[in-house]
Design a protein that fits this description.
alpha+beta; 12 helices; single chain; 9% strand; 67% helix
Length: 474
């Protein structure tokens, strides 16, 4: 009987092992790469060896050797950001949970020896968890769903980093452009202030007009200092997101933001696209499916949570007689007298309902976020285009006409300087409008594909949660 039970345990274990998951060569990165390449068309790399680190360093140095575009900055961050590498490490840890949940429980072998008065008894046991073996396919299926969710969370961390880099890049270049504009304005304001002082000394300019020119110079100086501080902070944030060390901090950026596209994107079905492609929705769907399977498993095992079968072989040596051998088996199971499994079933059901309501709420919010992101995208495009097509050309015409009238002595220098201040305000507004458009463009891509700013915020929002072990009945 013991031999047959042991053989039965071995057969069941062998059949279970045949369906076990194995470690993938890339730690599950194939799914992440496929998802991110569809959304942003960028390469991702999980650095696990010295050779891989050397290859990534060489690629980053090559990309840093030329003036960075937004796409180049994103690619550097996806290869070089250590927080993202930590997220991929968590994905690899999630794969270990998948493999662990797919393995049958190890049988337990026990030996005991008792002696006394010249007699001895040796007992051997092979114990197997029958319930765990019976539910192994269900638990393994749940673990696969959770691992797929971990892959989606790693892809979401990748998209989140790409979106953050795009925003940081736009803010950095716009800040540099604003610094250049205010530097020129400060030089003009300084010359004007010096002229006002000289005219005041000759009595040609009263104190009120002198004060106006002096305060314009003082305000421009303060604005320039603020702009330089903002540009330095924006550059540091971009460097952090790209994971740059001392030797990469001298990266080059363009002097100004790129021009607006000739026409805005037309996305008539943006809500449908967002619901179909948002990775956070895909994660919620997978989690709901895994919870449904866990609920079914909990209901199936609500009354029996412990079922161990042991094969026993006992050999007794008696000094007054020949040795004899005994064989048998031992079954252990839990009697559901006080806990009939209702608590576990109720917890699983409420957890499923909670996830269902969260998914429904998320779907409603995604549709609204997509509509709002596209509305902001179109309005910022129209505003920036209005500056580009109407306000700046008209300001240029006014400046040219004022200079002609000043040359013919039809207006004085202070009217010309007043126009210069108004043109400066228009140019600052144009830079701000283009910056808002490119930020809205990044937010639009985020609204469709996912990768928004997490609730915790921070410089390095790339941490993902490793897949939790599937809730089984044992």
């Amino acid at each position: 009987m013991t031999r047959h039970l042991a053989r039965g345990l071995l057969v069941i274990t062998a059949l279970s092992v045949s369906g076990c998951a194995a470690f993938s060569p890339d730690g599950g990165m194939t799914g992440v790469s496929d998802l991110t390449s569809q959304a942003i068309n960028k390469d991702v790399a999980f650095v696990r060896t010295a050779e891989g680190a050397s290859a990534v360093d060489a690629r980053v140095r090559q990309l840093l050797s030329r003036t960075l575009s937004a796409e180049t900055a994103v690619q550097i961050a996806l290869l070089n950001n250590k927080g993202l590498q930590a997220a991929y490490n968590e994905l690899a840890l999630a794969e270990t949970d998948l493999v662990e949940q797919s393995l049958p429980p190890n049988p337990v072998f026990a030996v005991s020896r008792i002696t006394g008065n010249g007699a001895s008894e040796i007992e051997r046991q092979v114990v197997g968890d029958i319930l765990a073996l019976a539910t192994l396919p269900f638990r393994s299926d749940i673990a696969r769903d959770r691992f797929r969710g971990a892959q989606l969370r790693a892809a979401l961390a990748t998209l989140r980093l790409a979106a953050d880099v795009r925003r940081a890049y736009v803010r950095t270049v716009a800040a540099n452009e604003m610094v250049a504009l205010l530097t020129d304005a400060k030089a003009t304001a300084e010359s004007t202030a010096q002229l006002a002082v000289k005219l005041g000394e000759t009595g040609s300019l009263n104190k009120l007009d002198q004060a106006r020119e002096q305060v314009f110079y003082a305000e421009t100086t303060a604005d320039l200092a603020t702009a330089r501080q903002a540009a330095a902070s924006a550059r540091e944030r971009l460097a952090r997101l790209m994971g740059l060390w001392d030797d990469g901090l001298d990266f080059r950026l363009p002097d100004r933001l790129p021009p607006l596209p000739r026409r805005p994107q037309a996305l008539p079905s943006i809500e449908v696209d967002a619901v179909a492609h948002r990775i956070d929705l895909q994660i919620a769907r997978l989690e709901l499916a895994a919870l449904a399977k866990a609920l079914n498993l909990t209901e199936a095992t609500r009354f029996v949570t412990l079922l161990d079968l042991a094969g026993i072989s006992r050999r007794t040596q008696d000094p007054e007689g020949p040795p004899f051998r005994e064989r048998g088996f031992d079954v252990q199971f839990q009697i559901p007298i006080f806990d009939g499994g209702e608590v576990r079933v109720r917890q699983a059901a409420e957890t499923y309902n909670l996830a269902f309501n969260r998914l429904t709420e998320r779907a409603v919010n995604v549709r609204s976020e997509a509509r709002d992101a596209y509305r902001i995208y179109r309005s910022t495009y129209d505003i920036a285009g209005h500056y580009q097509r109407e306000i700046i050309p008209l300001r240029k015409i006014i400046t040219e006409e004022m200079q002609l009238r000043f040359s013919s002595m039809q207006v004085d220098i202070f009217a010309l300087l007043t126009e210069a201040r108004q043109r400066l305000a228009a140019l600052r507004g144009a830079i701000d409008a283009r910056q808002r458009f490119f930020l809205a463009q990044a937010d639009l891509q985020t609204a469709v594909n996912g990768g928004g700013v997490p609730a915790a915020g921070g410089d390095n929002p790339t941490t993902i949660a490793a897949a939790a072990p599937a809730a089984g009945g044992h």
